[in-house]
Write a structure and sequence with these properties.
alpha+beta; two-stranded parallel ribbon; binds iron/sulfur cluster
């Protein structure tokens, strides 16, 4: 079983409400060989949303900041943690 990015499976979960479908990935999900997840949505973010990027604060710390300047690091960490939990479940 694979865990794949939902936007690659054709789900419109990107920040701009679009997807980046890859037919091969979509078929893996349709055939039951993969589970599609979007860590950003699992972290509580909405569609659409501001695009984000990882920035450093000058002291070696990284954080995720939206285009509007909002610190969304916690949402990204929460989404990553939930995705890890899903991965552990499907691994067993
Ligand atoms: S977090 Fe969601 S929108 Fe971003 S790459 Fe992953 S699946 Fe796609």
């Amino acid at each position: 079983m694979y865990l794949v990015s939902a936007c690659l499976a054709g789900i419109n979960c990107r920040y701009d409400g679009q997807n980046t479908k890859v037919s091969f990935i979509e078929e893996l999900v349709r055939s039951g060989e993969a589970i599609a997840v979007c860590p950003e949505l699992l972290g509580g973010l909405a569609v659409p949303r501001d695009s984000c990027e990882i920035v450093e604060d000058g002291e070696g710390n990284a954080k995720v900041v939206s285009k509007a300047g909002k610190d969304l690091t916690k949402s990204f960490e929460d989404g990553a943690q939930k995705t890890l939990e899903i991965a552990k479940v499907i691994e067993t």
